[in-house]
Amino acid sequence: MKCTIKISLVGLGGCGKTSLYSVAFAEKTPEDTKRLSPTILYETRRHPFLGLQVGIFDFGGQEQYRAEYFSKPEIFKGTDILICIVDLHDPKTFDQAKEYFEGLLDIHRKNNEKPQIFLFLHKYDTEDYQKELLDTNVKSAKEIFLDIFKDYNFDYMLTSIYQQDELAKVFRDILISSYKDLKKSVEKAESQLEEIKAKIIISDVSGNVIVHNVQGVSSGLTLRGDLRDFIDACNTVRENIFMSDSAQFKGMNEDGKEIELHIFKYIISVLVMKTGELDRESQDKLNILLKDMSLFADLIISAHSD
Ligand SMILES: Nc1nc2c(ncn2[C@@H]2O[C@H](COP(=O)(O)OP(=O)(O)OP(=O)(O)O)[C@@H](O)[C@H]2O)c(=O)[nH]1
Ligand SMILES: [Mg+2]
């Protein structure tokens, strides 16, 4: 498989593209996005995720920029995932958005490319908006948009930057779908975590949270800074001092607080935080989880070498 992924975010001006990026990938709060200015032309950012180099292209949606894209269709070349964004708070723009998306599909057809497509019915929240109108708009958006992508590998979702954890999962699942079979492992880990009486965070070594059972440890996909620094430091020790693919680290204080870090195949990290010994059942389940994550890391590595 290829290890770089190009994600293009498209939609009319003000629909929320830069906000989506900022909240999901760049540790911004929903409030922060109220100060964003319109994007000039397009901006690209890199984000490593599970060993993939993800390039996120945020295509400013104001009219003059849209016109420019149609005169330079090659800027969309190489798009693996096209995310079309609709502003549910602005139903009068639906027709124009549809026209834009159809134009973009034309461009991709001419480029001989068939990206995977996700439609975000976005701003699915009642921040400065009435609930009744929102439901009406969802209904009419579905009628207008769902059939234009029928020739594509396509899915749609209701999204909002005010549901930051949900949004992080949406992007996580989109990125994980680049790997065959990984989704099942993630779902399994998710249910295992519920049954273990310890705080557990599974992330990649760059600090993208994949699954966790602790509130407030991430902002969008990104793990809290102090824990990220810890993983980073341990990862450096693994690489430079242990010189091995996998390693374990442990720390504790006199009150019985413990933190344990497992790094698997220089890619996955499992952080376990607990006070005192785990009960037997939890410990057994944790051991199974660790085995599974070791396999998970193997799957990723073998996908990369294909
Ligand atoms: N209620 C609500 N507002 C949002 C959401 N996402 C973005 N916004 C607001 O929408 C406004 C425009 O957001 P931007 O992210 O700048 O829009 P954009 O699509 O990047 O616009 P261009 O760069 O001009 O194409 C900001 O005031 C955001 O706070 C959302 O999920 N819900
Ligand atoms: Mg923008």
Q: Which key features would you list for this structure?
A:
binds guanosine-5'-triphosphate; binds magnesium ion; six-stranded mixed sheet; globular; Rossmann fold; Beta-Lactamase
Quick structural summary:
Strands 2-3-1-4-5-6 form a 6-stranded mixed beta sheet, with helices on both faces.
Structure, described:
This protein has 2 domains: 4-176, P-loop containing nucleotide triphosphate hydrolases (Rossmann fold), CATH 3.40.50; 182-305, Beta-Lactamase (2-Layer Sandwich). Helix 1 (17-25) packs across helix 5 and helix 6 (182-194) packs antiparallel against helix 8. With 306 residues, it is an alpha/beta fold. It is 39% helix and 26% strand. The strands form 3 sheets. A 6-stranded mixed beta sheet has the order 2-3-1-4-5-6, sandwiched between helices. A 5-stranded antiparallel beta sheet has the order 8-7-13-12-11. The structure holds guanosine-5'-triphosphate and magnesium ion.
Write the layout of secondary structure elements.
Elements lengths: L3 E7 L6 H9 L16 E8 L2 E8 L3 H9 L9 E7 L6 H17 L5 E7 L8 H15 L8 E6 L4 H13 L5 H13 L4 E6 L4 E4 L5 E2 L2 E2 L1 H18 L4 E6 L4 E8 L3 E8 L4 H26 L1
Parallel strand pairs: 1-3, 1-4, 4-5, 5-6
Antiparallel strand pairs: 2-3, 7-8, 7-13, 9-10, 11-12, 12-13
The structure holds guanosine-5'-triphosphate and magnesium ion.
DSSP E strands, number: 13
Strand fraction equals: 25-35%
**Overall pLDDT:** 95
Radius of gyration (CA) equals 21 Å
SS-based class: alpha/beta
CATH class of the largest domain: Alpha Beta
Classified in CATH, the superfamily of the largest domain is P-loop containing nucleotide triphosphate hydrolases
> Strand order within the widest sheet?
2-3-1-4-5-6
Order of helices and strands, N to C? EHEEHEHEHEHHEEEEHEEEH
Structural domain count: 2
Give the overall form. Answer: globular
Q: How is the main sheet built?
A: 6 strands, mixed
Number of distinct helices: 8
